[in-house]
Amino acid sequence: MEWDKSIDKTDIPAAIAPIIRGLCINTLGYPWVVMYDPEMEEILSEALIVDIEPALTETDTLHEESMVKVFREAYTAWEFDRAPAGVDAAMQTTRVRKGPSCVVVKRKDTLEACYWIDQNLDAVKQRIAEKNTSLLKEKAPKDQSVHKERILAFSATQRVDVVRNKVALISGGICRSSGVGEVLARSLARSGALVFIADYDLAETQRLAEQINAEEKRTAAVPLSVQVADEESVRHLFKTIVKTTGGLDICISNGELLTAESVLDQSLKDFQAVTDINYTGFFLMLKYGGQVFRRQHRTAPQWKTDIIQINAKCGLVGSQIQSANAGSKFGALGLVSSAALELVAYNIKVNAICPGNLFDHPLWSDAEQGFFVRSFKRVQAPGIKSPAELRAHYEAAIPMKRACTGDDVVRALYYLIEQAYETGQAIPVTGGEVMLH
Fold first, then answer.
1. What's phi and psi for 105, nearest 5 deg?
2. What is the dihedral of CA 281, 283, 288, 290, to 10 degrees?
3. Which residue has better confidence, 123 or 109?
4. In 3D, which of 117, 97, 114, 98 has the Cα closest to residue 49?
5. What is the rounded distance in angstroms from the CA atom of residue 390 to the CA atom of residue 405?
């Protein structure tokens, strides 16, 4: 038996949501949105009603496995009650399966939490406003159910839809060191995902989310604030997400802090700042994202989820005057491979993408403060007469003869999500600069 002593009674609404979402995914074969309703004050008779009293200890601590058992039994009873007379629900293999759109959690006769379920964020908000308890129907054909693990013949159309209707989180969504976060957010939204964009700069995150939602003509992006190196901030981030959508399918850790200083001169304070964001920040995303995925797995054991760190080329090979960056990135890949071994038991894949240099980003190409300008002024390399020539020099060293782009990273991301048989990997996206890792 496994006890989760980190969860007390005040956390029950957040702790239960992934269990409900997993149950819906497992039954209906679709990544539903499960939203917690803090305003509900009555127990709706049309809802799936679950009494969690048997799963709580005397000190109101949640026993996770007992909680899962309570929900499974309640759902089985609910489904049987709605089956055609005299026919066991479990025997109906050809019928369209249905699920509850409202789940009410009570403790004896006291309402503890209420959750509403629908296919996307806009639909579930409308359902809450209307108090619409009509049943959900499965969205996937029976032969694509998540109940069975099947090896499908590859089709190029699969990758187009690999993130459609899934819920994704990107930390460092406005990360200024590379610009990759914004590219990923826009691409995921265009592909039909719901994207939580989390960053320390909430104003910029809100701006990006508003632009994406206007372009997609739906709620495709939700802005959130987070300090990735602060545990309480990360814990709060995931609580907010599970109360909004019930859980996640894709967790992308993109927070990054870069410096360019000699190991002989860099202050301990600056070194620790880089380590806090690039290494500790990823650990916290891995920890709390993994907890959400584990709870979903309890009730959707065949549903695969992804934790992906956006690492860097310097996570694979050392980089001159970037010791702090390289050290933190090397360390993060150790977390990737170690966590992959542990979390595969919960069908969680853990991988990393290691982009090469993104020369078109202002960090490199800004006319006043970009790396090319500053490096050209600091180090007069033989034959290099301008920042533009310095860039050409760098590009010539890349076998593909060009810089990495955000689109290159997107392709690697979709590959890792689609690839069901890959975990613990660090994928180089470097144009051939780094090979055979």
1. -105, 125
2. 140
3. 123
4. 114
5. 19
Q: CB neighbours (10 Å) of residue 8?
A: 13
Quote the Cα angle for 54-56-60, to 5°. Answer: 150
Q: How far is CA 273 from CA 200, 266, 309, in A?
A: 15, 11, 18
Angle between helices 12-28 and 281-299 (to 10 degrees): 50
CA-CA distance, 344 to 342, in Å (whole number)? 6
**CA atoms of 181 and 229, how far apart (whole Å):** 17
Choose which CATH entry (3.40.50.720, 3.30.450.90, 2.40.40.10, 3.20.20.140) describes domain 156-350. 3.40.50.720
Q: Are 137 and 96 in contact (CB under 8 A)?
A: yes
What SS3 state is found at 51? strand
- Tell me, yes or no, if the pTM score tops 0.85: yes
And the tokens for 148?
Answer: 């069975």
Model confidence pLDDT, tens digit, residues 407-420: 999 999 999 999 99
Place of tokens 């108090």: 131
